[in-house]
Structure formats: structure tokens, C-alpha cells
Amino acid sequence: YYADWIVSTPLIMLALGLTAMYPFTKINYSILFAIMMTQAMVIMTGFLAQACSNNTALLTFFMIGNALMILIFYLVFGPLMECAKNNKKLARKYKNLALLLVLFWISYPLVWIIGTPGYALISPSATSLLFIVLPILCKPVFGIIDLFLLKSMQT
Question: What's this model's pTM, rounded to 2 decimal places?
């Protein structure tokens, strides 16, 4: 999972960031870089947590990853939301898109901690199934909704 996520999830954050900055009259590269790198660090902490053999290290990396995710949520609803507010038609649509992404993003650590990487409260099959379904929702579904939102801005 991690090889895919280390590439795809920062790109999803890039898509969300660029949507917030539509119609691209002023792109804030520092915000885009910050959110993409923070997202990559979230994935790395998940990988490191899963690689740990003791619970203390596992929980430490898990908590660091969740703290980084809170930073991502701040960037999504702070600076990026401010960018979106520069376009009145975009602000509400961006907020709904951001809320959808946050809902998807919160699902990952929940599945991780109850699944086989964490405390194995659910079976390996259920964990695998959830880690297959979540990316489908987070990638193509998010992408389609994002494109629809941008298309609706042109009319």
C-alpha cells in the first residue's frame, strides 16, 4: 500500500490545493509544498509504525502520523480555505470537497489501528478489503467530484 500512497496521496493534496486556488491567478506554491510534504510524512509514519515490533513504537509513530494529519486539516481549512474564499462561487464547493476528503482521510487511521497493521481487531481479509475500497473512494471518486466542481465553475 505504502508505495502507492506515498505518491498518490500528495498528488490528491495537490489537486485539492489547486482547486482552492482556481482560476489560478495566484498559486501559493509554499502551501502546496507544505501540504504535499506533510501528507508524504503521514504515509511514512504509517509505514514506520507498521514496521515496528513493539507497541510503544507503533503507537508513537501512529500518534505522530495523526498529529501530522491534524496539520493537514489545518492547511485544508485554514490557508487553502482562504484561497478558495477569493472566488465566491468556489468557496462553498471547495468546503464540501474538503469535508469529503477529510472524511475519507479519517477512515485510513481507523482501519489501520483496528486492522492487522495495528491491533488486529478485524481480520486480515477485512483489512485488505477496506484498504482496497478506501483508495477507490479517495482517488477516482474524489477526482471525478473535483473535476465536476471545476467544470461547474466554468458555466
Answer: 0.90
